[in-house]
Amino acid sequence: MILLTHGDREYLREPGEELQTDLGVVEIPDDARPGDVLESHLGEEFRVRRLRGPDLFNHLQRTGAPMLPRDIGLVLGETGIAAGDRVLDAGTGTGVLATYMGRVGAEVITYERNPEFAEVARENVRLAGVTDRVEVRTGDLTNEADPSGFDVLTLDTEDAPDVVARAGELLVPGGFLAVYSPFIEATREVVETARGTLSDVRAVETIQRELDVDERGTRPSTGPVGHSGYLVFARNV
Q1: pLDDT tens, 9-40?
Q2: 31 vs 38: CA distance, rounded Å
């Protein structure tokens, strides 16, 4: 997949496809490469970009509210997910987190209970180019999880505490747990469960505040505080 841009417009397409817009029709060659400039039949120029993580976040199909890039960044940074790691994920949803982890080289098995959501996630995994590293399974992780050890366990599910109770069985020694929740009550339950079997348990709220920069000066934005959710991190002993 490649990204075609014209000003602030963006279009996700496959090489060899045709793009039809009010700015004209663009024939995308099979060998289109990042940096190429393609011209529509009306003479408008479109630039070719290579897809990056934020581009995928903006263009993947959605079945709900996915984790935001800043939350995903914390998961990657706090757990140290890297190439060659085995990751067990539950609550696939749109598959944004799973594709990010696959793009850094991790081998991901992700579970989604809703068959329709799982199909959307599989298509997103294909668009992200990580079908060789991310496997989307339809089902309940609690019943179907591979018993062998994983380096990282990531959860975005209502029954996260039940899975966290088994984290010691699922993770290799020193493996990391990361749990996302939009609700503070659920976060507390995850923390209390994790303290029973894991170490280094801590919870954080993710907030991002933008800056207003203009000719008068620079100051924090007076707009809404950018709260997105809560993350719990822990480590297997």
Answers
A1: 888 888 888 899 999 999 999 988 888 999 99
A2: 12
Q: Is residue 176 predicted with pLDDT exceeding 90? A: yes
Per-residue confidence (pLDDT) for residue 98, from 0 to 100: 96
Q: What is the mean pLDDT of residues 233-237?
A: 96
Helix (H, G, I), strand (E, B) or coil at 78: helix
Buried b (16+ CB within 10 A) or exposed e, 121-141: bbebbebbebeebbebbbeeb
56: tokens are 């995928």
Which CATH number does the domain housing residue 207 bear?
A: 3.40.50.150
Same domain for 130 and 19 = no
The CATH number for 17's domain is 3.10.330.20
Q: Are residues 8 and 136 in contact, defined by beta-carbon separation less than 8 angstroms?
A: no
As a three-state string, the secondary structure of 167-229 is HHHHEEEEEEEEEEECCHHHHHHHHHHHCCCCEEEEEEEEEECCEEEECCEEEECCCCCEEEE
Q: Does residue 12 sit in the same domain as residue 68?
A: no
If one compares 55 and 43, the residue with the highest pLDDT of the two is 43
- Indicate the residue type of 164: V
What contacts 24+ positions apart, CB below 8 Å, involve 115-120? Answer: 116/63, 117/63, 117/64, 117/92, 117/93, 118/92, 120/61, 120/62, 120/63, 120/94, 120/95
